[in-house]
Write a structure and sequence with these properties.
174 residues; elongated; three-stranded mixed sheet; alpha+beta; 8 strands
Length: 174
């Protein structure tokens, strides 16, 4: 689980998911390539799963992305990564969509998802609760995420650094 923070000025204290280190280098390197391919970068993770190191590039585009978009971006970024060689050693490259129930982990995800139904899970209870769900209103100047749980109600103000996980909740019309 990755917490959310909203200020670029905050230090690398583990409270904030920012694209730094390998992910930051790869983001800077690949952003123009991904945009030339008609998409944008939603997120980048460089993780170890078992014995495998994986560079996971999550892409998005207006109207969403499909398998053809992922394949096109994979073919576009692969030679750029080979040439620049920003990662020491072997790794697997994955290009994927964030999906309809996408996780919001970066500051720029908040304005992109305003009006969407979201669920925020907190590290510790606030007002006796750890889970808040409703329409995402935005973020305030104090770095709190604003979620309106019901039509016309006052939004809940959740400190960004208290959020363990937040994602869009899609209504499948069940």
């Amino acid at each position: 689980m990755r917490p959310l923070l909203f200020s670029e000025e905050k230090g690398a204290d583990g409270m904030k998911k920012e694209l730094s280190g390998v992910a930051g280098k790869v983001y800077e390197l690949l952003l123009p390539v991904v945009r030339d391919a008609g998409c944008d970068i939603w997120d980048i993770d460089f993780v170890k799963e078992g014995t495998r190191r994986i560079l996971r590039i999550t892409i998005d585009a207006e109207g969403g992305v499909g398998i053809d978009d992922c394949e096109r971006v994979h073919h576009a970024v692969d030679p750029v990564l080979d040439e620049a060689d920003p990662i020491d050693g072997a790794y697997y490259l994955e290009v994927s969509s964030p999906g309809i129930e996408r996780e919001l982990t970066l500051e720029r995800h908040i304005p992109a998802c305003i009006g969407e139904k979201v669920e925020a899970r907190l590290y510790a209870p606030q007002d006796g609760r750890r889970v808040f769900a409703g329409r995402l209103v935005g973020a305030d100047d104090e770095g709190r995420v604003l979620i309106c749980e019901s039509e016309g109600s006052e939004p809940c103000r959740l400190p960004a650094d208290a959020i363990a996980k937040m994602k869009v909740i899609y209504d499948f019309g069940d």
